[in-house]
TrEMBL record:
Protein's GO biological process: proteolysis; signal transduction
Classification via Gene3D superfamilies: 2-enoyl-CoA Hydratase, Chain A, domain 1 (3.90.226.10), 2.30.42.10, 3.30.750.44
Gene source species: Nonlabens xylanidelens
Domain PDZ as annotated: residue spans: 84-167
Protein name: Carboxyl-terminal processing protease
Signal peptide, first to last residue: 1-28
Length: 547
C-alpha cells in the first residue's frame, strides 16, 4: 500500500508541478503583455501631449482612449466618473436630495420628463415638457459640465430657474428636498381578491417593499397577486433573488452565473421560507423589463410558480460589477452571464461575434434551444429574454415604436395634447382611433425619420454601386425602391397601432393625474392587467398553462 502511494505521489507531483508551472507561466505571459501595452500607451500619451502640432487636452485624450478601449466590448462595461459613482449609490439606496423629478439633460436645456407629486418641482408648478434653460443665473447652454448637477444641493437650499413652456419663458423658485425613490411606487386591490403591485426597480428596498405591499393587500382580502415588472430595467442581483424567494421555497436555485473567471461562477439559492406559499401569481413583463426583472420572471416561469403575461423581455443576461479606480472613479465590468433555473441564457445580443457591419448578432428564432421547466416539464426557450405564457399585442416594443420613443415623438405629442384638452376624471380619457390618426399626421408633418435595416442595407449597396460607377444604371430603380419602403413604413405605424396607442394613452394620463393616477387607470383599462385578472380568475386556464 505504501509503495502504491509513493508511486502515485511520484506521478501526481510532477503533474501538479507542471500544472502550476503552466498556470504561473500563463499568468506571467498575461502580466508581461499587460505591462508591455501599458508602457507603450504611456509613452505614446506623453509624446502626443508634448509634441502635437496644436494644443491638446490630456483629459480629453484619455477619455477618448478609454471610450475606444471599451467600445469593442458590450454597452454595459463602462467608465464611471466620481459623479456617476455617486449617482449609482443613489440608485441603490433609493434616496437623494433634489427637486423630485425625472429629467433629460441636453446641451442647451434640461427637460422635465415627469414631476413627482408633492415634491419641489411639482409644488413650483413645473410640468412634463417644460425646458429649463437657466439655473441660478447660469445658462444651461454655457455650462460645460453635466447641467443636471446644478439641480442638486443640500435640503432646504433654494434655486431659481428659468424655463420655457409652449414657447414662453417663465421663472420660479423652489427649495430642494430629500427625495425617496420607492422600488414599489404603487400597490392596490385590482379586484376584491386580486392585489396589484408595481415593482419599478431593484434597489436595496425592492424585496422589503414588495413583501410589505403584498402583506398589506392580503390583509385587504387578496388571495392572488399581479406583479408588474413592465419597464423595470433591473438593479441588484441579490434583490432579484430575494423577490423570487417571496414565491419560491428555501434552497431553490434562482440563477447561476458563468464566466471565464472561475471566481464568478456562482449559484444563487433562496435563503428563506417562501413568504406567499400557495398564492397565485401573474407577472407582467415587456420589452423594457431587463436584467433582475428577467431573473424574477424567468425563475417564476421555470418553477411553474406563476403565469407570465405581456411581451418578450429585453434580453440582458449579463452581470456587471463595479471595480474601484483612482480619484473616486470606477469601471463597471461585465463579469459573467446569468442563467435561469432550467439553464436558459437570457442574453439576446452576442457582442463578441458581430456581423460584417460591426453590430452585435441577435439569436435567430430558428436557433432557439428548448428547455424544460423544473416542476411540470413544460417547454420553454432561450434566445434572449423571457417569452411570456400569454402574449399581449399592446405590450410589444417593435422597431417602429422604439424609434418613436427614441425621437421623443410620444412624449412631445402628449405635451401638445395636454395643453389642448382638459379632463376632470381619468375615465374621460379615451385615446380614440381618430386621435391616433391625428398622431400619424402629426409625426408626418414633424418629419419623423426611421431608417429600417432594409434601407440601411440598400443604401450601402447603392454606395458600392456608386464606387464602381454603376449608380447611373440603377438610380431610378433605387429611388422607386425607397418610395416603396417609405409607403411600407407608413403602413408599419398603422399596423403597430395597439402598442403605440397604449404608450400614448399612458403618457397622456400621467400628465393629468401623475404616476399614481396612471396605475389606477391601467387597473381599469390596460390590456395586460385585464388579461392577468382574467387568467387569475380562471382556475382551469391558470392550471392548464402551468401544467
Amino acid at each position: 500500500m505504501s509503495q502504491k502511494i509513493n508511486i502515485k505521489r511520484q506521478i501526481l507531483l510532477p503533474i501538479a508541478a507542471a500544472g502550476l508551472l503552466f498556470t504561473t507561466a500563463s499568468f506571467q505571459n498575461d502580466f508581461f503583455e499587460i505591462a508591455k501595452q501599458i508602457e507603450i500607451f504611456t509613452e505614446m500619451y506623453k509624446q502626443l501631449n508634448m509634441n502635437y502640432v496644436d494644443d491638446t487636452n490630456p483629459a480629453d485624450l484619455m477619455d477618448n482612449a478609454i471610450e475606444g478601449m471599451l467600445e469593442g466590448l458590450d454597452p454595459y462595461t463602462v467608465y464611471w466618473t466620481e459623479q456617476e459613482v455617486e449617482k449609482s449609490k443613489i440608485n441603490r439606496r433609493g434616496s437623494y436630495t433634489g427637486i423630485g423629478a425625472n429629467v433629460r439633460t441636453k446641451e442647451d436645456k434640461i427637460t422635465i420628463i415627469e414631476p413627482w407629486k408633492d415634491y419641489p418641482a411639482d409644488k413650483a408648478g413645473l410640468k412634463a415638457g417644460d425646458d429649463i434653460i437657466e439655473i441660478d443665473g447660469v445658462k444651461i447652454k454655457d455650462y460645460k459640465e453635466n447641467a443636471g448637477d446644478l439641480l442638486k444641493g443640500s435640503a432646504g437650499t433654494e434655486l431659481s430657474i428659468t424655463y420655457t413652456r409652449q414657447g414662453k419663458n417663465k421663472t420660479t423658485t423652489l427649495k430642494r428636498e430629500g427625495v425617496e425613490v420607492n422600488a414599489v411606487p404603487f400597490y392596490e386591490m385590482a379586484t376584491p381578491e386580486i392585489g396589484y403591485v408595481v415593482l419599478s426597480k431593484f434597489n436595496e428596498k425592492a424585496s422589503r417593499e414588495t413583501k410589505a405591499a403584498i402583506k398589506e393587500l392580503k390583509e385587504k382580502g387578496a388571495t392572488k397577486v399581479i406583479l408588474d415588472l413592465r419597464g423595470n430595467p433591473g438593479g441588484l442581483l441579490s434583490e432579484a433573488v430575494n423577490v423570487s424567494n417571496l414565491f419560491i421555497p428555501k434552497g431553490k436555485l434562482i440563477t447561476s452565473t458563468q464566466s471565464v473567471v472561475s471566481k464568478y461562477n456562482r449559484t444563487y439559492l433562496t435563503k428563506r421560507s417562501e413568504e406567499f406559499e400557495g398564492m397565485k401569481v401573474a407577472v407582467l413583463i415587456n420589452g423594457r423589463s431587463a436584467s433582475a426583472s428577467e431573473i424574477v420572471s424567468g425563475s417564476i416561469q421555470d418553477y411553474d410558480r406563476g403565469v407570465i403575461i405581456g411581451a418578450r423581455s429585453f434580453g440582458k443576461g449579463l452581470v456587471q460589477r463595479p471595480k474601484p479606480l483612482s480619484y473616486g472613479t470606477q469601471v463597471k465590468i461585465t463579469i459573467s452571464r446569468y442563467y435561469t433555473p432550467s439553464g436558459r441564457c437570457i442574453q439576446a445580443l452576442d457582442y463578441w461575434n458581430r456581423d460584417e457591419n460591426g453590430d452585435a448578432v441577435r439569436t435567430k428564432k430558428e436557433d432557439y434551444k428548448a428547455f424544460k421547466t423544473v416542476n411540470s416539464g413544460r417547454t420553454v426557450y432561450d434566445g434572449g429574454g423571457v417569452e411570456p405564457d400569454i402574449n399581449i399585442e399592446s405590450a410589444v416594443y417593435s422597431p417602429i415604436t422604439t424609434a418613436l420613443l427614441k425621437e421623443n415623438s410620444i412624449f412631445d405629442y402628449a405635451t401638445e395634447y395636454y395643453y389642448k384638452h382638459q379632463f376632470n376624471s381619468m375615465d374621460e380619457i379615451q385615446f380614440t382611433d381618430a386621435d391616433f390618426q391625428e398622431f400619424v399626421s402629426w409625426i408626418e408633418k414633424r418629419g419623423f425619420e426611421f431608417e429600417t435595416v432594409t434601407e440601411s442595407a440598400f443604401a450601402k449597396a447603392y454606395q458600392t454601386a456608386a464606387n464602381e460607377e454603376l449608380d447611373d444604371d440603377i438610380k431610378n430603380s433605387y429611388e422607386i425602391m425607397l418610395e416603396n419602403i417609405k409607403t411600407a413604413k407608413k403602413k408599419e405605424v398603422v399596423d403597430k397601432k395597439a402598442e403605440i396607442k397604449s404608450l400614448l394613452t399612458d403618457e397622456i394620463v400621467k400628465r393629468y393625474f401623475y404616476k399614481e393616477g396612471l396605475y389606477n387607470y391601467q387597473i381599469k383599462y390596460n390590456p395586460e392587467i385585464r388579461a392577468a385578472i382574467e387568467v387569475l380568475n380562471d382556475e382551469g386556464k391558470y392550471n392548464r398553462i402551468l401544467k
